[in-house]
Design goal:
It is a single chain. The protein has 423 residues and is of the alpha+beta class. The chain has 4 domains: 2-92, Rossmann fold (3-Layer(aba) Sandwich); 125-180, ATP-grasp fold, A domain (Dna Ligase, domain 1); 190-323, ATP-grasp fold, B domain (D-amino Acid Aminotransferase, Chain A, domain 1); 327-422, Alpha-Beta Complex (Glycinamide Ribonucleotide Synthetase, Chain A, domain 4), CATH 3.90.600. Helix content is 29%, strand content 28%. The protein is built from 13 helices and 24 strands. It has helices spanning 10-19, 51-60, 72-75, 78-85, 98-101, 103-113, 126-133, 159-170, 239-259, 293-298, 304-312, 351-356, 390-401, and strands at 2-7, 27-32, 42-43, 65-68, 89-90, 120-123, 140-144, 153-156, 182-186, 191-199, 204-206, 210-212, 215-217, 221-224, 229-232, 266-275, 278-285, 300-302, 321-323, 327-334, 360-363, 366-369, 372-375, 379-387. The strands form 7 sheets. It has a 5-stranded parallel beta sheet with strand order 3-2-1-4-5, with helices on both faces. A 5-stranded antiparallel beta sheet has the order 12-15-20-24-21. A 4-stranded antiparallel beta sheet has the order 6-9-7-8, sandwiched between helices. The protein binds adenosine monophosphate and glycine. Residues 118, 141, 143, 153, 155, 185-188, 192, 214, 271, 282-283 line the site of adenosine monophosphate.
Length: 423
Amino acid sequence: MRVLVIGSGGREHALCWRLARCPSVKALFASPGNPGIASVATCVPAGDGTPEDWLRVAESVDADLTVVGPEAPLVAGVADCFRAAGRVLIGPSRQAAQLEGSKIFAKQFMKRAGIPTAEFRVAASEAEAREALKHFGVPVVLKADGLAAGKGVVVARTAEQAEEAATALLSGRLVGPAGSRLVIEEYLQGEEASFIVLTDGRRVFSFECTQDHKPVGDGDTGPNTGGMGAYCDGRILSPEQRRQVLERIILPAIEGMAAEGTPFTGFLYAGLMMTADGPKVLEFNVRMGDPEAQPLMHTLEGDLAEALAASARGSLDESLLRWNGQCSVCVVLASEGYPGPPRTGLPITGIEEAEAMGAVVFHAGTRRTDQGLVTAGGRVLGVTASAPDLPGAIERAYAAVRAIHFEGMHYRRDIAHKGLKRW
Ligand code: AMP
Ligand code: GLY
């Protein structure tokens, strides 16, 4: 089949890298793609990013299957637009994508479906926020309702911080109109984990559990980023915890969405807090994670394209996919200044050497010029390596990282270290 991947980051490079290895894929396209993706797929320019425009791109390459990387096209209704035109796309409808597009929708849905999550209140004005805050101690968490590219969540440590955050969010100063309504919720304690499944609306294939590293600095210090690295490891969850996540969260979510007339198809990502009372949902995303996709795609076996096409048609066969049992670690190499405005345009060296050591280097923010490959974003590369055990995967990933250089490059030195206690 002819497959199109929408997006241009490390997650999309990882998806393309995996799809390019599928026997069922005869031609692979990405829009807009990036220089790394260009080594496994044909990159096609994107237009204005509307659903109609993505449909035009899919028609121009005659895609039998379109896979959406980021959330924005899904929340804008790209799946509905493709469905109306009779073109196959894997991803939820605009209505179902509200699980990520509106935190208020997600929280109210979880309440109706009995899915464990933090206690919460909704506020649309400063007076309502003040009233809501009375019901919680500190720390307390304030979240913009709408899409905010990871910048819409504030963990307030004091009452003053909480009031300031409410003002900053509601005024539009922090994340614009996405903050015009807020979820204010109980602070949960525990270890975070990402649990991602592929679903056709009824059946489920569970990817191995992963952990992201959002703060920029070692030991989870400094400002949050889009993710400085991720790893997958079968030991993150015990078999009992895994059963709880499936039975209390994933299956009720999929059954609940179907029962409410908004069936969910595609990748469902549950951001979890593993609390003393069991797993609770911090957030749902309606797509693959970035950088979680990088270790997941590196260790996935089977024909992903066939599994995605079957899911889109409502007949997922879970046996099409399996995890190879290895641990995998992705270390993100970032530009100077990131997560603030990054310095870009700097030459990158050492990717071939890193790959000769057995790692795969996924591109996130790179650009091909006459002078060679240069940096073109905050997160530049995701160096990914696997091994039968976690210490081995960490060792391989960092050995490859040391082969790569660009001016001002920084990365976390402790990706996956929180998993070492389980080995
Ligand atoms: P979210 O975008 O909802 O995943 O939130 C971003 C980050 O904020 C999460 O990865 C957590 O580290 C933190 N966070 C969100 N909600 C809570 C909560 N209820 N309790 C503690 N930390 C939270
Ligand atoms: N890694 C977090 C996300 O994809 O939202």
